[in-house]
Amino acid sequence: MTDTPPASPPDWPGQRLGLPETGPRSVGRFGRRLGALAIDWGIAVILSAAFFSYDSIATLLIFIGLQVLFTVVVNASPGHLILGLRVVPMEGGLLGVWRPIVRALLIALVIPPMLFDDNNRGLHDRAARTILLRR
What keywords is this UniProt entry annotated with (predicted)? Predict the structure, then answer.
């Protein structure tokens, strides 16, 4: 029996997936992800205040709706678009409809996006088999 040393952690998110450290196709870092989330939530708050007297349930439903609609149509939420990010399936191909729905519902639960792996993939991305990359 040979002793193998434990695998060392990657130098950057996405390294083990063959993705570059920086630039296009690199993994979206925490700051950009958080900024995109803030932008998306801000849009939901503005729409909720304008049309639903800033009802908390309406705000959450608007947020989920924006996430699903934009991710299905352009592979990115409004915040992702502004900050140069996009959602892609791990296997390649088309994103489809089910992945954005799963991602949005899990993001709305707050905790899943906060639990992420070495590739900055939160539980919501792992469940939907997606990854958030820079454009």
Answer: Cell membrane, Membrane, Transmembrane, Transmembrane helix
